[in-house]
Please model this.
Amino acid sequence: MDMAYAKDLQSRGQRNSYAGSPRKPCSPGFATRPSGSFFRLAVADIHHKDPPEFRLHTAPLSQPSTRSNITTTPTSTVNSHHHTHTFNMSLTTLVIPADYSYVLVTLLLTGVVNQYHGILTGTRRKRANIPYPNAYATHEAANASLDAYQFNCAQRAHANYLENLPQFVISTAIAGLSHPRITAGLAGMWLVGRVLYARGYVNGNQESKGSGRYQGMMYVLGQLGVMGLAAEKLYRMIM
Model:
């Protein structure tokens, strides 16, 4: 079938026009085989005359911004025969200050304070003879027994610590990128406040209604401080 078709083209003077023209790349999705005149001629008829060319022009990186630590590349342009595409690309660089180690120390100490709460709760549980897996003593047992009441206070102090821990850790890690020493000081205030909060809470009695926890309310100042510094750092990075 191939030879008959080729001879027919030759008889009409079309074979030489294909054979004399140079082969051009096929369109994507088409393949050629070394033999078979019909297949080669059929594909040659739909070749691209001018395959598109793409050139990427990239400018060098500019100097990093001292205000927000953002490094940008001005513009990258891709040119084709019919279209021009422009991309604005930016790179954000986080610079860790040398004093950031102070921040890391305070973050590590959060685990130590957490362990302190666990020991405090465990000793009060044993003293009140509250078996696992009971998380708290009943209301009647807490009113009747000081040990049971103090166990409930220790358990609640630990729970409050864990409730505030995630936002404190994240805020401290971000705030320390701009003001490491101030952040470490506020974090230290938070840690000391959490210990005083737990001790004051646990050492009260039924009449105090847990008011001893206010001894450690300084932790609120430390937490609000690091959250404010973290918000300021993120604002500078975005703007």
Summary: Confidence is low (pLDDT under 50) at residues 14-21, 23-78. Strands lie at 55-58, 70-79, 84-92. The first helix runs from residue 2 to 11.
